Amino acid sequence: MFILTLIPIVMVISYSVMDNVIVNKSPEFVGFDNYIEVLTDRVFYTAVGNTLFFTGVSVVAHLVLGLSFAMLLNTRLLGTMTKALFRVVYILPWLFTVAIIAVLWRLMLSPNGIVNYLLISGGLIDTGVEWLSSRDTALPAVTFINIWAGYPFYMISLLAGLQGIPRDLYEAATVDGANSFKQFLNVTLPQLKPIIIAMAMLDVIWTTQQFALIWMTTGGGPINVTEMLSTYTYKLAFSRYEFSVASASAVIILLFSMVLSFFYVRHQKSRD
């Protein structure tokens, strides 16, 4: 942990207040100039806005889909074989690596892909849409891909939580005259609240740091429409070779992640 985590963090922080680092043997101290350059860059705020949209929509959709599918798999209305089949189908996105997911959806969302074919066949559109290349659809498209890839984590965790709720609580609610909807509001959700909060915090941390999916589908384009904080920092370092500015951007992201981690750890301690 010391070698692989603490030392790199200290090095990046030191780079963020220097200039001419890595590629130059005579770095010079510049103070907070790199931070000022990042915080006055319009692309940085575009990346912040895109990251907030990408994260917010993904986390909410993950929760809604995960809870819906978990309740479907926990219901007594379906047979054992049907539940087993649904478990296999719903868990599939969680089994694929990011590279496979990116390539798969790039093929499906291409102008000649299956998505456009189905929409044209159904009469919903007239011509193929450049889902990942259009400024109007690129951000919603990558957000949808992330939602599809991430909801099984919520589903599995919430399904375990649902199966751990005592049946006595539902029987008592039934005796008190509560219908299914009231049982969901007053029994199911309160029992799942600790799990939902913990997963949502983790999901926010993970989603704000999502890089591979964005880079392998849109690369932050077109024209910064899908630029995230992760891709913005990467481009500063390895496309523009401004390692000092990239380090400043990385430190800003680190501070943001530390705030989220603080609330997550605090919640876990209060839960314990």
TrEMBL record:
GO terms for cellular component: plasma membrane. The keyword Cell membrane applies. The chain crosses the membrane at residues 52-73, 85-108, 144-165, 243-265. Keywords: Cell membrane, Membrane, Transmembrane, Transmembrane helix, Transport. InterPro entries: ABC_transporter_permease, MetI-like, MetI-like_sf. It is a multi-pass membrane protein. One of its GO terms (biological process) is transmembrane transport. The keyword Membrane applies. Its main location: membrane. It holds the Pfam family BPD_transp_1. SUPFAM superfamilies: MetI-like (SSF161098). Residues 48-264 form the ABC transmembrane type-1 domain. It is found in: Cell membrane. PROSITE patterns: ABC_TM1. CDD domains: TM_PBP2. Belongs to the binding-protein-dependent transport system permease family. This is Sugar ABC transporter permease. The lineage of its organism: Bacteria, Bacillati, Actinomycetota, Actinomycetes, Micrococcales.
